[in-house]
Amino acid sequence: MDTIDKKLLLAVQKDCRRPISDLAGEVGLSTSAAHRRISLLEKAGIIEGYHARLNGPKLGYQIEFYVEVSLDSQSEQVLEAFEKAALSRPQILECYLMTGNADYLLKVAVENTREYERVYRRTIAALPHVSRIQSSLVMKAVKRWAGYPARD
Question: For the whole model, what pTM was predicted?
């Protein structure tokens, strides 16, 4: 990956709906060369996909929680069972295996605290091998993830 590839990645990450001709002009390539490089970045798995970022509150998801979950064991079978179950729950937006005090960190978005209680009881607490749950309410998003920074 060279400097032009990095510039292309930053431009695509910022707005993936821009025409390739615009991206090409921004990084100093022909449209066909930019298209070829982007295709190679996709095939290499560097570009994993293209997504629309939706506005949660406008969709009715007024509050977000980060939830630390500890399991009763860290055996391979227990971790696999938890991960399989977490993947099947649409209420869980993100799930990360972590180091530290908790085994997993989940992200959940809900309409209100009553809905969170329902998700807490019926979804999170019902996941296999859960021994402890610690929830933190997001009061305000100061900076949301908007992509990876440029690297030299």
Answer: 0.86
